[in-house]
Amino acid sequence: MGAGNAHLASLKANKDAARISHVCDVDSDILRKFGDAVQRETGEFAAAVKDFRAILDQKEVDAITIATPDHWHTPMAIAGLQAGKHVYVEKPCSHNPAEGAMLVEAQKKYGKLVQMGNQQRSSAHSIEIVEKIHGGVIGRPYLAKAWYSNVRKSIGTGKEAPVPAQLDWDLWQGPAPRRPYRDNVHPYNWHWFRNYGTRRNAQ
After folding, report:
1. Rounded distance between C-alpha atoms, residue 89 and residue 73, angstroms
2. Do residues 56 and 79 make contact, with C-beta atoms less than 8 angstroms apart?
3. Which residues pair with 24 in a beta bridge?
4. Angstrom distances, CA of residue 1 to CA of 5, 24, 26, 63, 187
5. If we measure between CA atoms, which residue out of 31, 17, 10 comes closest to residue 171?
6. Averaged over 179-184, what is the pLDDT?
7. I want to staple 197 with a disulfide (CB 3.0 to 4.6 A). Which of 106, 135, 139, 191 is the partner?
8. How confident is the model at residue 201 (pLDDT cuts 50, 70, 90)?
9. Helical H runs in 69-197?
10. How does residue 1 score in pLDDT terms, banded at 50, 70 and 90?
11. 117/79 Cα distance (integer angstroms)
12. How many CA atoms lie within 13 A of 145 on its CB side?
């Protein structure tokens, strides 16, 4: 719900121009909590749906926002474009570079708006820095390096376990190769598994 809550905050701030008609998650517990949060924050009820494809069938839906595990970003975004929806998709926009190219081509083909949630570019200080660099304050830039490091606790090796009753594991995996459910993947640690996430040290 982390990125989804950020989407909720932004949509609430733009409530005069947009409303949340549907919420979606393959985990019914998360879906219920997020639906409650939408009603609490916006004062309006949003229909709760497990399968995003049912939302794409709704003609009154103009746009979708995507805050799923990384492996779903491009497939869901392309499906949204094919259904005639504008798309806001969280970073990274794709699970791999080839998918990114596919998303660019899909946007050109279907003509709807697509924005990736690279929020850093929207911050005032980043905009100012970019303007100054383009203005020549440091001369002609020819090389840039950036990195982020942090210390996290181990997620452990995990073990195969029964799929929790509230989770549609098949739909959660979506376009990824099928694997048995393990108890250290959902709802957050998928980031460190190569099938689902894009972190450099993914397994």
Report:
1. 7
2. yes
3. 49
4. 6, 11, 12, 19, 9
5. 31
6. 96
7. 191
8. low
9. 73-82, 97-110, 124-134, 169-173
10. low
11. 18
12. 0
Please give the structure tokens belonging to residue 190. 């998928």
Q: What are the pLDDT digits (tens) for 38-77? A: 999 999 999 999 999 999 999 999 999 999 999 999 999 9
- pTM assigned to the model: 0.87
111 burial type by CB count under 10 A (0-12 exposed, 13-18 middle, 19+ buried): exposed
- In one letter, which amino acid is 182? R
- Cα–Cα distance measured from residue 177 to residue 168, given in angstroms and rounded to the nearest whole number: 15
Q: Which residues contact 27 (CB under 8 A, 6 or more apart)?
A: 164, 166, 167, 168, 172, 186, 187
Please, are residues 13 and 20 in contact by the beta-carbon 8 Å criterion?
no
**202 has a pLDDT exceeding 50:** no
Task: Please give the single-letter amino acid code of residue 74.
Answer: T
Q: What's the residue count for the chain?
A: 203
Give the model confidence (pLDDT) of 91-121 as tens digits.
999 999 999 999 999 999 999 999 998 877 7
CA-CA distance, 29 to 157, in Å (whole number)? 25
Residue pair 21/38 in contact by the 8 Å Cβ criterion: no
